[in-house]
Amino acid sequence: MRLAGCNLRCVTCDTAYAWKEGDEVSVQVLQEQLETFPCRYLVVTGGEPLLQAREMVRLLDLLPSWTLALETNATLWEPEILGRFSVVTASPKLPSAGVGPFPYGVFSRYVEAFSSRLQVKLVVGEGDWKAVDSLLKEYPSLGIEVPLVIQPLDRGVSFSQYQGEVGNMVETFLQRVGKWERVDVRFLPQLHKILWGRERGR
Ligand code: SF4
């Protein structure tokens, strides 16, 4: 479920349509729509879903038997709501996102309070590797207690170019991952782009 609105403006954002577009839907209607699906696993993403924290609580109250996962940019701190999710994916931004100094103080709270249900996803551009090294130094639990996903940035190039860039980045990744000495690190291309291209809603 993708919620509209975001408090950041990453220059690399691939869902900029979610900043302003979207339909206003009541939580009751949303619940009814969700109940038509055969699964009971809901991933809440955005935009930045915690911007609609109050409404989200009302929706989650209506889904007591669901397994819930959240994707957030980790700039907002809503501990009561975060505690409702089985998995929280925090995605702090690196220099390529172009959002200026990132509020790592808030991200630190995620690592301190939710490490048992947290995973961290970093969208990495070619110029971001030093920032990744620094981040791993600053947060020793990343890639050990907290799973770490490295996702090669899609600069909006063609599919074949993206494939080439992913190939180049995997080499750099493999050189670096040995030095990091972290066991729970995955390199994951943006699979939805590979499967569905730039089709919206995926
Ligand atoms: S935080 Fe996510 S949704 Fe918001 S601008 Fe950045 S990439 Fe886009």
Describe what you observe in this structure.
This protein is of the alpha/beta class. It has one domain (16-196): Alpha-Beta Barrel (TIM Barrel). Helix 1 crosses helix 2. The protein is built from seven helices and six strands, in the order H-E-H-E-H-E-H-E-H-E-H-E-H. Strand 2 (67-72), helix 3 and strand 3 (87-90) form a beta-alpha-beta unit. Iron/sulfur cluster binds at residues 6, 8-10, 13, 15, 18, 46-48, 73.
What structural keywords apply?
single chain; 202 residues; alpha/beta; TIM Barrel; six-stranded parallel beta sheet; 6 strands; globular; binds iron/sulfur cluster
What is the number of domains?
A: 1
Tell me the Rg in angstroms: 17 Å
Give me the side-by-side strand order of the main sheet.
Answer: 1-2-3-4-5-6
Number of helices: 7
Mean pLDDT: 93
CATH architecture: Alpha-Beta Barrel
Compose a concise summary of this entry.
The chain is α/β, with parallel strands linked by helices and 202 residues long. It has helices spanning 27-35, 53-61, 79-82, 104-114, 129-138, 159-180, 191-196, and strands at residues 41-44, 67-72, 87-90, 118-124, 148-152, 185-187.
SSE layout and pairing:
Layout: H1 27-35, E1 41-44, H2 53-61, E2 67-72, H3 79-82, E3 87-90, H4 104-114, E4 118-124, H5 129-138, E5 148-152, H6 159-180, E6 185-187, H7 191-196
Parallel strand pairs: 1-2, 2-3, 3-4, 4-5, 5-6
Helix pairs in contact: 1-2
The chain binds iron/sulfur cluster (SF4).
